[in-house]
User: Fold this.
Amino acid sequence: MLIKLDNRMIPGTQMDKEAMGNVTGLAFLNKIFYIQQGIMLAQIRDISGIDGSTLQNWVKRGWTGNAINKKYSKDQLSRILLINMMRQALQLEKIDYLLHYINGDIDSKDDDIIPESKLYDYVCKIVDAVSGETVFDTDDLRRYIEELTVDHIEVFPGARQRLNYVLEIIVTAYNASLLAEYANTQLQSLSN
Assistant:
């Protein structure tokens, strides 16, 4: 039996893809930020399904940046969604390490390899490409990532290789989260 991973939701959100016009990544973010430059904590809660105290805890711990005038940017939302995608599969401290590995200090853009919104876009494109697959070939995944990032401009030698490695980890962790969700659903069906 093959397990089909549930890919109906926009990654990291509780938003149905179909209801949002089947967009993910930057297209989704652009819809959210079309009229406004920033969004409030309550809107992030509605989009992600993460409660406000958890989000505030992430800010306090430095896992995501502080709001400016009580509003969060596209990159801040992207970082929150990336954390949310991986948090069932990886410890939050390891997710923080991974995101620092790719983009350094949360309060500085000078050490970033890629804006978080572009990183989220890459992840969504990869997730969409492997959607429906239960087990994906890591060689195929790496090849797809290489093709996707071929035009990425390196800010220092080896940055693209670092980016590709992080993309592989994020997508693998996200799929592990989807598998854990499937296992929990199956477990619940035993008691029904």
In short: Residues 18-190 form one domain. The CA atoms of residues 100 and 106 lie 7 Å apart. The chain has a mean pLDDT of 90. The radius of gyration is 17 Å.
